[in-house]
Amino acid sequence: MYADALRSTFPDLDPGVDDLFLLEPHQIAELPERAPSRELAAVLHAHSTVCGFLLRRHPAIEGYLTELLADHGPVAEGELAACEQALVWELADWIAYQRAPEMYDAGAQVDWDLAAVTELVTLDGQVVIDAGAGTGRVALAAAAVARHVYAVEPVATLRRYMRARATRLGLDNLFAVDGFLHAIPLPDASADVLVTCQAIGWELEDELLEIRRVVKPGGTALHLFGASSARDSDNPLLRALVTHGYQPDTYDDGSVVIQRYCLQIGAGPELNRDPVG
Ligand SMILES: C[S@@+](CC[C@H](N)C(=O)[O-])C[C@H]1O[C@@H](n2cnc3c(N)ncnc32)[C@H](O)[C@@H]1O
Questions:
Q1: What predicted TM-score, i.e. pTM, was given to this entire model?
Q2: By alpha-carbon position, which residue is closest to atom 18 of ligand 1?
Q3: pLDDT in tens, 182-202
Q4: Residue of the CA atom closest to atom 13 of ligand 1
């Protein structure tokens, strides 16, 4: 269960049911895949305001919630607290984004080293997009050498956190932009390099099309993953990247291991909107 990993990553977080009011619409849309059904139903039966909040914030969730509440009845009073904890811990990274970005930053899944990028492509004087930028670990490092860095991130708290860090570091070339990888709010052919770190695959086919649109012909797209992903040869996301022409390799400097998937735009097979087989 993801909750176990999150409990050890964020030992001081102490999430509660009221943290569910911090969820963003795109996160509510992901609840069917992320939230344990029985526990979510138990919480919604017991806390009708949370249910109302989710419906208001992301109306398209209504069909799923209606079915969920019909399939799972309320739990006994003595069981409710355990259900609440199981649910909020399963979503604890989203809660950490909102309540404690610095905790998320400290517990990030991938140790980071800009050399993992610059070994493959120079960022000096380049226009770089870091998509799914989180607390800006990649974007801030890139901004030290790049001309401009556009850090695309849908969570407002994380964009604010990133901006504050850029200001403290005296970086005036980092722009934190609201957006998604499948809908990047930047013009065609506007970037030399696009990087993601543990941040691709929500809507992969549309994301790959967006990447080809925003990166200049001859530019580079690079997706980074932690060492555990590197061992997962059955990971359908990683296989799909290879199908789309990305070249896999591993960066290993003795302390940091990063799996990289790199594509020179204009060099891979043309994409279409058919799902990857
Ligand atoms: C696992 S974190 C990685 C953050 C950062 N790249 C790092 O390495 O620390 C994933 C990030 O992607 C953001 N995100 C979620 N859905 C997204 C989407 N559809 N498009 C772009 N970013 C998204 C999350 O808010 C989160 O900040």
A1: 0.91
A2: 180
A3: 999 999 999 999 999 999 999
A4: 132
